[in-house]
Amino acid sequence: MKEYALAKTQNVQKANELLEYLQKRPKTEMVGLGLIYGEPGLGKSRFARQAAIQNDYIYFRLEATMTAKSFTGRLLERIYYHFGMPKIGVRGTANEIFHRSLEILKNFENTIIVIDEIDYAFKNKKILGSIRDIVDETLSIVVLVGMADAKEKLLSADVHYFDRCNFFCEFKSLQTDDLILLCDAVCDINVDKTVIRHIAKKTKGNIRKFIKSLYSLESLAEKQNIQMIKPEHIAIMQ
Fold first, then answer.
1. What is the DSSP pairing of strand 228-229 with strand 190-191?
2. In degrees, to the nearest 5, what angle opens at C-alpha 55 toward C-alphas 72 and 57?
3. Based on the domain organization, do 108 and 162 belong to the same domain?
4. Residue 228 and residue 158 share a domain
5. What's the domain count of the chain?
6. Could you tell me if 90 and 76 lie in one domain?
7. Are residues 58 and 165 located together in one domain of the fold?
8. pLDDT tens per residue, range 91-139
9. How far is CA 72 from CA 35, 57, 86, 98, in A?
10. 232 and 133 fall within a common domain
């Protein structure tokens, strides 16, 4: 299975539209802030990681235990790594560390930062405020990735923050045609479309469950030297 493949499903196309819109925005009038949100298992984090790898974006995943200082320290480390800068000790107050990041980003226009699991920041106003300062004080683009209620939580957290968000992209359950595209992109073994439809119905458009089912079938097919998974193989391999 191809680990970093990214099929152009409807969700991926909408997310790419978000990025294109923010890149082409009038930069002196609009900040580069967007939000991708949706139910679990629809490929939001997968898109965030794969798009970052393929397009050289900064990918950053928030953690449940992250504080304002650990956020600023991790952000600066990612920025150093992204721009190939020597690792300088991340020391100082959260404010001092954060301003080092800002100064670097000011010198590299249109840097794209993808921040996954933004839901962890909704109860930490300092982290949210730091992200807002990035788009306010630099020409960087920040794409937030969160759960289905992230849009409402962003509004509840700060109405002015919500107003800064210039593109909302909701990931929805994948339809069969999207799952066929995904299968073609990630599978090393050919899979009959009838099999894909069967798995699509079983997993109800949940990309995480779909990938798991595909991986199981593909692994068994490789062991049995099957070159193409057909409907008659499903019962044998289960």
1. parallel
2. 5
3. yes
4. no
5. 2
6. yes
7. yes
8. 888 999 999 999 999 999 889 999 999 999 998 989 999 999 999 999 9
9. 20, 18, 17, 5
10. no
Compute the distance between CA of residue 50 and CA of residue 230 in angstroms, rounded to an integer.
Answer: 29
Q: What is the pLDDT of residue 137?
A: 94
Upper half-sphere CA count for residue 174 (Cβ side, 13 Å): 34
Q: What is the rounded CA–CA span in Å between residue 156 and residue 29?
A: 24
Give the span between the Cα atoms of 34 and 101, in whole angstroms: 20
Please indicate, yes or no, if residue 69 is contained in any of the structural domains: yes
Residue 196 falls inside a structural domain: yes
CA distance 176 to 12: 15
Decide: 118 and 64 in contact? Cβ < 8 Å: no
d(CA 221, CA 213): 12
Say yes or no: 16 and 118 in one domain.
Answer: yes
Task: Identify any residues that bridge with 33 across adjacent strands, giving them in sequence order.
Answer: 142
CA dihedral over 128, 11, 140, 92, signed as positive or negative: positive
Alpha-carbon gap, residue 205 to 173, rounded angstroms: 5
Q: Quick one: pLDDT at residue 161?
A: 82
Q: Find the domain containing 204 and state its range.
A: 176-237
For 60-81, how does the pLDDT look when each residue is reduced to its tens digit (9 = 90+)? 999 999 999 999 999 999 999 9
Q: Residue 185: its pLDDT value, please?
A: 84
Other Cβ atoms closer than 10 A to 163: 11
- Using the 3D structure, point to which of 171, 196, 216 is the last residue of a domain: 171
